[in-house]
Amino acid sequence: MREVIVEVPRESVEEVLDQLLPIVPGGVREVQRDGCVELRMRGDRLPETSDLTRVLSRWAPRLEERTVPDDWRERRVADYEPDIIGGRVVVRPEWAPASLDQHLIEIVLGENAAFGAGTHPTTRTCVELLAELAPSGSFADLGCGTGLLAIAACRLGWDPVTAVDVQPHSVEATRKNAAANEVAVTVSARDLSGEPPPRADGVTANVPAWLHVKIAAGLPDPTPKLAIVSGFVPAEANDVLDAYAARGLRPARQIDAHGWVVAVLVHDLRVEPG
Fold first, then answer.
1. Each residue of 222-248: b (16+ CB within 10 Å) or e?
2. I need a labelling partner for 126 at 20 to 30 A (CA). Which of 6, 69, 77, 208 fits?
3. pLDDT tens string 146-166
């Protein structure tokens, strides 16, 4: 199968697409690069490279042509590019090739229906913030999904690590992913809307706002020294952060992750728990 890649300045993408879409039957895929955008076209009925050059001569784009596998499984491996989070962590699907950079922390996730593959801005930002913090004792991933944050905590040096979720498929996914990454995570089913979270020095919770309020109220003593919380929007932030502040956890850092709030909370020793 033929693939043609057209590299154009970001500000010219819409104009170039206006010219390409009528003559490319299979459509055009956009890939963001530093300072430019790659427009990728695939199929056996693509215009010749010389014709594309003529049509797009106004923008003088850089064109590249190559042959890609017909089988979609082979194509996804060929297309895979590692996405490095925070300069330290690579999260890749199980079918993707391993990273050759020995300095990176690589986490492999199986394909399943659980939330938290590292692509959503909340999950990604939680991983990035976790990678910036020095490990300090035990850790709990509250609403673990795939177990990505629990696995990352293990690989970053937190110990022991626990993970809980109300969904059976998330509990199973976390167990499988922890085993695949050869880390020790204690995983269990727990309904955090009515059961207290496990005791830990540090926690992450990437869950809806209403559940944060329940989690904060149920935190066991002594209160965690650190929490990374997300899964809510700015309009919900005051309710969430007030609930944690009542337990002595106050924001040390707050980030807008594409419309979602991600906050690092630290324990304020001036506030007594409960």
1. ebbbbbbbbbbeeebbeebbebbbebb
2. 77
3. 999 999 999 999 999 999 999
Indicate the SS3 state at residue 158.
coil
Distance CA 138, CA 157 (A): 10
CA dihedral of residues 175, 178, 179, 181 (deg, nearest 10): 160
Residues 102 and 127 in one domain: yes
* Confidence band, pLDDT 50/70/90 cuts, at residue 177: very high
Is the whole model's pTM more than 0.85, yes or no?
Answer: no
Cα atoms in the Cβ-side hemisphere of radius 13 Å centred on 152:
33
Pair (112, 26) in one structural domain: no
* Distance from chain centroid for Cα 35: 23
With contact defined as beta carbons under 8 Å apart, do 107 and 123 qualify?
no
Structural domains of the chain, count? 2
Supply the pLDDT for residue 145: 94
Q: What is the extent of the structural domain holding 191?
A: 85-267
